[in-house]
Amino acid sequence: MTSIFDDIKRVFTQGGNAVTKLIMINVIVFVTLILLRTISYLVGYGVIYELVTINLGLPAHIMRFLFKPWTIFTYFFTHEGFLHIIFNMLNLYWFGFLVREYLGNKKVVSLYILGGLAGGILYLLFYNLVPFFEARAATAVMIGASASVLAIILAAATLLPDYTFNLILLGPVRIKYIAAFLVILSISGAVGDNAGGNIAHLGGALIGFIFIKQLQKGNDLGKPVHAVGDFFSNLAAGRPKMKATFTNPGPRTRSTTTTSGNVRPDQKEIDIILDKISESGYESLTKEEKQKLFRASQK
């Protein structure tokens, strides 16, 4: 048991893979809720579990949400059903690793959080403005990372539309068709039993598509997420703000080298490479372009 906790601690203290960290957070929350549910019901205090879960899920009614604004974040780290979390985490693993390979850890985290926020906002808008949903808003609550995962899936499909996954029974399938199928599935379910969840899926999918299109134009929509993350990381590490004083106003040359001495490509070069991938696929890149893309992902 000790080794399990050591492994978990290592995931979060040694930097590394953002996809693994996101999956780990979701699994920890899921296991904690399972233990809480089992214990609370066994001792006759099931209300404790109900109280915790109702304060993690995103309520549909705007007035209930205003009293629990944190749920716009907590809902996309919360699952109750085994199939729900397994499906989401498998997709996060497959598509998240693909996005991470080409764009780096920060972009994966940005997509996950922005996708969840977009899904939550669209969910609230529909349940408070569309007549079909308004009648259900009083009791509806949403949990699950599906909107965040759909953002990553659409981002991968927009970035690398012809990348191929080998699916059981179907064989090789381009991820643009997988993404299109999931979007159509969400549209068809927007008036079904999981109407709110499917609306949130569409919000996540939309932000994933927009994120990559803007990134190809040189605009990183994830900058606010990075800034907040860096702030809390520095706060937790207790790092003081750095100050530098320059006394020599003479001419200077701008350095764009990494610690290993390799020249780090600028954003325009990366945009050109991303456009080439979008049009012709990753395999069309030269060795030099692949190296530039790799170095950029280490930012």
From TrEMBL:
<feature type="transmembrane region" description="Helical">
    <location>
        <begin position="136"/>
        <end position="160"/>
    </location>
</feature>
<keyword id="KW-0812">Transmembrane</keyword>
<dbReference type="GO" id="GO:0006508">
    <property type="term" value="P:proteolysis"/>
</dbReference>
<feature type="domain" description="Peptidase S54 rhomboid">
    <location>
        <begin position="68"/>
        <end position="212"/>
    </location>
</feature>
<protein>
    <submittedName>
        <fullName>Rhomboid family intramembrane serine protease</fullName>
        <ecNumber>3.4.21.105</ecNumber>
    </submittedName>
</protein>
<feature type="compositionally biased region" description="Low complexity">
    <location>
        <begin position="247"/>
        <end position="262"/>
    </location>
</feature>
<dbReference type="InterPro" id="IPR022764">
    <property type="entry name" value="Peptidase_S54_rhomboid_dom"/>
</dbReference>
<feature type="transmembrane region" description="Helical">
    <location>
        <begin position="167"/>
        <end position="189"/>
    </location>
</feature>
<dbReference type="InterPro" id="IPR046483">
    <property type="entry name" value="DUF6576"/>
</dbReference>
<keyword id="KW-0378">Hydrolase</keyword>
<keyword id="KW-0472">Membrane</keyword>
<feature type="domain" description="DUF6576">
    <location>
        <begin position="266"/>
        <end position="299"/>
    </location>
</feature>
<dbReference type="Pfam" id="PF01694">
    <property type="entry name" value="Rhomboid"/>
</dbReference>
<keyword id="KW-1133">Transmembrane helix</keyword>
<feature type="transmembrane region" description="Helical">
    <location>
        <begin position="195"/>
        <end position="212"/>
    </location>
</feature>
<feature type="transmembrane region" description="Helical">
    <location>
        <begin position="18"/>
        <end position="36"/>
    </location>
</feature>
<dbReference type="InterPro" id="IPR035952">
    <property type="entry name" value="Rhomboid-like_sf"/>
</dbReference>
<feature type="transmembrane region" description="Helical">
    <location>
        <begin position="111"/>
        <end position="130"/>
    </location>
</feature>
<keyword id="KW-0645">Protease</keyword>
<dbReference type="Pfam" id="PF20216">
    <property type="entry name" value="DUF6576"/>
</dbReference>
<feature type="region of interest" description="Disordered">
    <location>
        <begin position="243"/>
        <end position="267"/>
    </location>
</feature>
<feature type="transmembrane region" description="Helical">
    <location>
        <begin position="43"/>
        <end position="62"/>
    </location>
</feature>
<feature type="transmembrane region" description="Helical">
    <location>
        <begin position="82"/>
        <end position="99"/>
    </location>
</feature>
<dbReference type="GO" id="GO:0008233">
    <property type="term" value="F:peptidase activity"/>
</dbReference>
